[in-house]
Each structure stands twice: as structure tokens, then as C-alpha cells.
Specification:
The chain has 352 residues and is an alpha/beta fold. It contains 12 helices and 13 strands. The strands form 3 sheets. The chain has an 8-stranded parallel β-barrel, surrounded by 5 helices. The two termini are 35 Å apart.
Length: 352
């Protein structure tokens, strides 16, 4: 991490977390964030659902909810970027404060509640996106919608022509009853509507499903079966957790989804189980607690074809991306793998 990045992160961490988040996005848009070095190797390249990724390290949804910093995010070294979540209509989300740093725990708690500027404005920005990046959009539902399942299809219909993949997010803990859509019957109906809209797009794109880490094995099995029947292209495991492991920070009891280091083990076990239940028939993307190369590598060996991160950027900045990619190359050398794809799933049993 450079001195400039270290100083910038220190300033941001001295501010209210949501204010700091907004300033970080503004700095990105204005070109004030030094671009980290690029790590390029064919050994890092991977392919998921027909998408060719230059490396397996992606940005998780939530960092750029409104797709306002696409050009900058396309230059910082991510293998792919996911923005959103977007809902059909703009909504403010839950009242502030709704974002908490837990530095002693290397964690974050948020209860944003799908705050975003709505599909129309977001679609206009997506239309102008850089074509050199692999870009996805997280689909959400308005909290006061009479038909939340249909909201996902509406956002895909409006924004689908401008993205490379879409993620159905039924796992956010911050919209009341949203996680109920993870039940087998409700999820099957929702995905059927989304996949119908996908088939009508000028260029059908991969559809991913993002699940919660707080699911029992029987629920994971059901989701795997529904995803296979619906022909979902990949599953993102996992979103934030509503559980609370032992934490040190005074805000540990705040309501919302916990992300960052305390989520790593829980999310990786869910990932490995899902890999087992699907028997490798659906590509998986591992999310939750990734803050270094060994954790990214652990998720890959547990069954992930790629990983995403977000919370670790609060503490490590964008220099984390090349650090992880360099570390992945070193791990491949150490364990005798010729590529990332060769390592996928090779350590799954250790997590089940």
C-alpha cells in the first residue's frame, strides 16, 4: 500500500462511514485514486458462464450502487465488476445511520435497504459503460412493491441490454421478507419470470443467483435443485449474515448484515456445501471475508471459480487487488497447479 493510499484511507476512516463511502466514489470518478499496478497472467484467466475474466477477483455489488464510477472501476484491476442493487423505482432505503465500521473485527455492518436511484437512471449510465470491462448488475425489488418477484424482471428488462450478467439478489437481510423468496416455490416462480425476460433480450446474458449464508443444508439443497431446473448460470455464495459471532466493536449488535472477516468461515462452508450439492454443475462465485490471497485461494479450492470482495477495501484499499492476484500466482506455484481453473474445488472436503 502506498503512502498516498494509506493517508487517503486514514482520512476516510475518520469520517462517518456513509459520507466516506460517497467521497471514495467521488474521488474515483475524478481520477484522484491512484490506479494500482496491474497483474496479468494467463494462469489467472478463467471463464464463467461464457464470460472471459482476466483474473478471478471481482468487485461485489453494493460499492457502486448507482453505476456512477464505471470508467474508474474498469481500470483498477478487477476481473469483473458488479454494481447495484437496482430497483424499478428509486428509493431512499433505511434511515441513517445505516453503515457501521467494526475495525477491531475487520468487519462492516450495513442496513441500507436497497437505496438506489432507480433502474431508469442506472440504465442510462450502463449504456455508456466501458466495453473493456466485464460488468454485471445486481437486481433488487422495491420494499413497497405489490409484486417483488416481478420487480427483478422489470429491472432486467430495462438494464439487460447494457450489461454482461445480471444477479438475482433474494438474500439481502435489509428489505423485510425479501429472504422469503429463497423458498423453493417462490424462488422457482421468480426465476421463471427473470429467465423469460432474459430470453427476450437482444443479447441474452448469464443470470446469477445470490444466496444468504444463513441457510440450513436442506434449504441449500432446495436452492441448488431450483437453480439447476431454472438453468441459472452461476450462484454467488454468499451475501451478508444476520448472525453475530463474537465481536469486539461497540456496534456489534447493530441491526443489519455483517460482512468482512467474521463472515469468511461461514460463507466458505456454505460455498463448499453448495459445490457438493450441485456436483460442479453450476459455477460458483465465493464472497464473504476475502481480504488476502490465501482467503481467495481457499474459496477457489472450496469450489469457487471466482471470488468477489467489498468490505476489505475499507481497510486495505484498491492495492489489495494486485496483492491478491500476485498471491494467487504464488499459491498455484506452491501447490503445483497450472491455472486457477485447475485448483477449483480441490480443497472442498476440508470445508464440509
Amino acid at each position: 500500500m502506498s503512502l498516498i493510499e494509506r493517508a487517503g484511507l486514514a482520512v476516510l476512516r475518520s469520517l462517518d462511514p456513509e459520507t466516506a463511502h460517497g467521497l471514495a466514489l467521488s474521488a474515483l470518478r475524478l481520477g484522484l485514486v491512484p490506479a494500482p499496478r496491474q497483474v496479468v497472467s494467463p494462469r489467472l484467466a478463467t471463464r464463467i458462464a461464457g464470460l472471459d475474466l482476466p483474473n478471478p477477483v471481482g468487485l461485489a455489488a453494493g460499492f457502486d450502487k448507482n453505476a456512477t464510477a464505471l470508467a474508474a472501476l474498469g481500470k483498477v484491476g478487477f476481473g469483473f465488476v458488479e454494481v447495484g442493487a437496482a430497483t424499478p423505482r428509486a428509493q431512499e432505503g433505511n434511515p441513517r445511520p445505516r453503515l457501521y465500521r467494526l475495525p477491531e473485527d475487520r468487519a462492516v455492518i450495513n442496513r441500507f435497504g436497497f437505496n438506489n436511484e432507480g433502474a431508469e437512471l442506472i440504465a442510462a449510465r450502463l449504456e455508456l459503460r466501458p466495453r473493456s470491462m466485464v460488468l454485471g448488475l445486481n437486481l433488487g425489488a422495491n420494499k413497497d412493491s405489490p409484486d417483488r418477484a416481478d420487480d427483478f424482471a422489470k429491472v432486467l428488462r430495462r438494464c439487460g441490454p447494457y450489461i454482461d450478467f445480471a444477479t438475482v439478489n433474494v438474500s439481502s437481510p435489509n428489505t423485510e421478507a425479501l429472504r422469503d423468496l429463497q423458498g423453493a416455490e417462490a424462488l422457482a416462480a421468480l426465476l421463471a419470470g427473470v429467465m423469460q425476460v432474459r430470453s427476450e433480450l437482444p443479447r441474452p446474458i448469464p443470470v446469477f443467483l445470490k444466496i444468504a449464508p444463513d441457510l440450513r443444508d436442506a434449504e441449500l439443497t432446495e436452492i441448488a435443485e431450483v437453480a439447476l431446473v431454472a438453468k441459472i448460470d452461476a450462484i454467488i455464495a454468499t451475501n451478508t449474515t444476520i448472525t453475530r459471532p463474537p465481536l469486539e466493536n461497540k456496534d456489534a449488535a447493530q441491526k443489519g448484515g455483517l460482512s468482512g472477516a467474521p463472515l469468511f468461515e461461514l460463507s466458505t462452508r456454505v460455498l463448499a456445501k453448495l459445490s457438493h450439492f450441485t456436483n460442479g454443475r453450476i459455477p460458483l462465485i465465493g464472497v464473504g471475508g476475502v481480504s488476502n490471497a490465501e482467503q481467495a485461494y481457499a474459496k477457489i479450492r472450496a469450489g469457487a471459480s471466482a471470488v468477489q470482495l467489498y468490505s476489505a477495501l475499507v481497510y486495505e484499499g484498491f492495492s489489495l487487488i494486485p496483492s491478491i492476484n500476485e498471491g494467487l500466482l504464488a499459491a498455484l506455484d506452491r501447490d503445483g497447479f497450472s491455472s486457477i481453473t485447475e485448483a477449483v474445488g480441490t480443497g472442498r472436503d476440508a470445508w464440509i
